[in-house]
Design brief:
The structure is a homodimer.
Chain A lengths: L10 H15 L7 H8 L13 H20 L1 H4 L5 H18 L1 H8 L4 H10 L6 H14 L8 H20 L9 H14 L13 H7 L4
Helix pairs in contact in A: 1-3, 3-6, 5-6, 5-9, 8-9, 9-10
The first copy, chain A, binds a DNA duplex through loops.
DNA sequence: GTTTAAAGTAAACAATGTTAACATAAGAAA
DNA sequence: TTTCTTATGTTAACATTGTTTACTTTAAAC
């Protein structure tokens, strides 16, 4: 007679942990219920006692994923003691590095496949406390300081986001052998983006030498 | 006794056509062999007489997809009679509109899922005659004309591509209710991008009124 | 101690891509 | 014309997928 470990204890948490660890290494596409049951030593249908279905587990992963994403990418947006230009530069770099370090998770969070789950999640949250809102607020801050052109802040934030999303996607989806050159590409990208957004005749002051070199008028 | 239509004639071509039409409406994920067999009135395994497996069909779709993509997006890059700034503007717009009009195909061509097939295809082609090469050449042209900053043209081309890829992805993956505002967003994006790339003190001349308005010094 | 509900199992489903064995038809060879 | 070969189709079976149903075990409440 086989001894079964009935009442595992915290099987639900274990499913979540295993799923997140899996996505750390492989694409969510390859995460099957068999992977989860094998890893926990349970049967393939055990998960249905803890989640309505596979999508419900994915939803939890996405939720935790966005928490992780926000925690890792937005801190500089709130660091009001730093120069604004530095906050943009460092945040963008954290963004790209998050994607680079968590490609499968990034794709899960920002891809199309589970867009319905993402939208459901974001519509529930009290207000738009996501990274994008923080970005837009920082853009508005930059306009008040006279550093950024006074245009529609929503559109400006979209432009910044699209730029970072674009370079991140190209990197993680296999369009760039980027390990060697991504820093230079990021700097070129940031220089182009920011020099297109700063107000004319504003002297940018940054504590990051590179940025001063990039943005001061050279003539 | 059921009359079978043995020797269909051009079943292979029909599979390809049906698959492309399908991707016009739904994601490639939902394209199953049953869809193809039902549409052609054949059995589910008939396709294996014409393609090694499903991936081989997808490979054909990707190949044709890139042909379509290049044909629809690059013409202005080669239109040397037009002002260079206009060529960038119009090409970018065609790019975004291609993604908007063919979201499933765009995702198939530029997403991660079939990256291995894409890479195999691109490595076979004689030389890099893809859209990116055309873009980079146009960037070099702009540098020679003194319109664009004289920096690494590869990096500059990447920046342009990343920007267009980013906005296109955000649009088609459900991050923007874009039907109403995408033109304005595109204009803001292009303005930011180009004004960050043009050489200082170069007067841009465009036949597109909007671009002159965007890029001429206003002070 | 009994009852009840939570949390596990096993067995079955349909749908997926794929393969193997078989059937038919078209065209070349006789 | 007849025969042989090969291309092109079918049917049946497989393992794997997510999922459901019925059953079993255990922990905890009464």
């Amino acid at each position: 007679m086989i001894k079964h470990d009935y009442h595992h204890g915290n099987l639900k948490e274990e499913f979540i942990t295993i799923a997140m660890d899996f996505i750390d290494k492989e694409d969510v596409e390859k995460l099957t219920l068999k992977v989860l049951s094998d890893a926990t030593g349970t049967s393939r249908s055990a998960i249905y006692k803890h989640f309505k279905n596979k999508d419900a587990l994915i939803e939890t992963i996405i939720e935790k994923g966005f928490d992780k994403f926000d925690a890792e990418t937005t801190p500089y947006l709130h660091a009001k003691n730093k120069a604004l230009i530095d906050r943009f530069y460092l945040t963008g770099k954290l963004y790209v590095e998050f994607a680079k370090n968590n490609p499968n998770l990034y794709r899960l969070l920002f891809g199309k496949k589970y867009a319905h789950i993402r939208e459901e999640l974001l519509s529930i949250k009290d207000e738009d406390c996501s990274g994008f809102a923080a970005l837009q607020k920082t853009v508005q801050e930059g306009q008040k300081q006279g550093i950024l052109k006074k245009e529609d802040s929503y559109r400006q934030a979209i432009v910044i986001w699209a730029t970072m999303h674009g370079i991140s996607s190209l990197i993680i989806d296999g369009f760039m052998d980027v390990e060697e050159i991504y820093e230079e590409v990021y700097n070129t990208l940031f220089e182009t983006l920011l020099s297109g957004m700063v107000a004319n005749k504003v002297k940018i002051i940054s504590t990051i030498p590179l940025l001063n070199k990039l943005l001061q008028p050279t003539s």
